[in-house]
Amino acid sequence: MFAWLLCLILVSEAWPVKCQYQQQQLIILAGQSNMAGRGGVTNDTRTNKLTWDGIVPPQCQPNPSILRLTAKLKWVLAHEPLHADIDVNKTNGVGPGLPFANAVLTKVPNFGVIGLVPCAIGGTNISQWRKGSSLYEQMIQRAQVALRGGGTIRAVLWYQGESDTVNLEDAKLYKERSDMFFTDLRSDLQSPLLPIIRVALASGEGPFIEIVRKAQLSSDLPNVRCVDAMGLPLEPDGLHLTTPAQVRLGEMMADAFLQSIPSSIKTTSHSHSHSPPKFPHFISYFLILPLLTHLFWMILTFRY
Ligand SMILES: *[C@@H]1O[C@H](CO)[C@@H](O)[C@H](O)[C@H]1NC(C)=O
Ligand SMILES: *[C@@H]1O[C@H](CO)[C@@H](O)[C@H](O)[C@H]1NC(C)=O
Ligand SMILES: *[C@@H]1O[C@H](CO)[C@@H](O)[C@H](O)[C@H]1NC(C)=O
Fold first, then answer.
1. Binning pLDDT at 50, 70 and 90, where does residue 234 land?
2. Is 260 assigned a catalytic role?
3. Is residue 285 assigned to a domain?
4. Which residue from 53, 129, 268, 302 has the highest number of Cβ atoms inside 10 Å of its Cβ?
5. How many domains are there within the chain?
6. Is 6 left (phi over 0), alpha (psi -120 to 50) or beta?
């Protein structure tokens, strides 16, 4: 009986090693096609179908410290295209999410495990992201599932607005609608100053690009930073960022993000030590297992 109790205590000591995602630094990715990623997606002239060329530059390669929440709400190693199972009705390619995460880890190596939560859907306008809409509620739900691991939402990356350049009225209302969206989002995530890194449009579906860009570049909400994508190379469709453009954008967003977070976060990730504490856990795990086996064996042989 006593031995069983001892086993239980030992097992519970070793348990935390299973909760390896506890320290995740969560990043929500939302918006429309250029956030979902269309880098390397072109119209195949033979088949007339949009296809992804499959080219993954080094900045977008998988990294054991970058995970992704799938459509089925499981954590997996992140790889391109990040939105393949989210923006399911479109052909997805390279987006800014992985180059962003790789750039953050290059600049702050002890940042911890990054958990990307892709939520972007191509062709969506700002009204479709309003609180109460299915896109909005799904994003909140995915964020809440992501938080169950014990991590913290560090930022929202938002690239959207191309669809709001078609009508003058929508373009004029963009500032008001996006401010409301950010405010609702922060309130529902219970993080009133959550860093938001938004992108000023490089392209649009209609003629009123400059009105939307002005709204994006002049937001007066605190802790909302804007990265300007204008001038980055576009695919032949004139709407979507190429793969090299997405790599550049991801790096620009990483710089904006690292400027937006208090330096204490960057340095406390030292003291919280995301990777080093795993080591003692691992060691104890490997020490405890043989010990347990040995204990069991001793009990068994003692009785029989
Ligand atoms: C591909 O290009 C052809 C010819 O320009 C066009 O007719 C077709 O609609 C395009 N397909 C897609 C999926 O964009
Ligand atoms: C994909 O298309 C189906 C059928 O039209 C639709 O029900 C579904 O909502 C679409 N999903 C997304 C993510 O666009
Ligand atoms: C946004 O898109 C939806 C779906 O395409 C459409 O029904 C709606 O009219 C659009 N809203 C605005 C304000 O453009």
1. very high
2. no
3. no
4. 129
5. 1
6. alpha
CATH number at residue 126: 3.40.50.1110
Ligand showing the shortest atom-to-Cα distance for residue 41: 1
Question: Is 79 annotated as catalytic?
Answer: no
Please give the DSSP secondary-structure letter assigned to residue 61: S
Chain-centre distance for alpha carbon 239: 23
Q: Is 43 in the pocket of ligand 1 (CB under 6 A)?
A: yes
3-state secondary structure of 116: strand
> Which of 85, 88, 89 to mutate to test ligand 2, by most ligand atoms within 8 A of the CB atom?
89
User: What's the mean pLDDT when you consider all of the chain?
Assistant: 87
Of the listed 178, 240, 260, 269, which one is catalytic?
240
Q: Which of 237, 270, 272, 294 is catalytic?
A: 237
pLDDT tens profile 114-153: 999 999 999 999 999 999 999 999 999 999 999 998 999 9
Give, for ligand 3, the residue of 89, 127, 164, 172 to mutate: max count of ligand atoms closer than 8 Å to Cβ.
127
Structural domain includes residue 288:
no
Q: Is residue 9 part of a domain?
A: no
> Could you confirm whether 33 is annotated as catalytic?
yes
Quote the DSSP letter at residue 54. Answer: -
DSSP 289: H
| Cα-to-centroid distance, 210 and ligand 3 (Å) | 20
Confirm or reject: Cβ of 50 under 6 Å from ligand 1: yes
> One-letter amino acid identity for 261?
I
User: What pTM does this model have?
Assistant: 0.82
Confidence of residue 271 (pLDDT cuts 50, 70, 90): very low
Query: Parallel, antiparallel, or unpaired: how do β-strands 75-77 and 66-69 relate?
Result: antiparallel
Domain hosting 229: range is 26-35+52-273
Classify residue 234: in a domain, yes or no. Answer: yes
Read off the DSSP letter of residue 107.
H
What is the tens place of the pLDDT at every residue in 37-74? 999 999 988 999 999 999 999 999 999 999 999 999 99
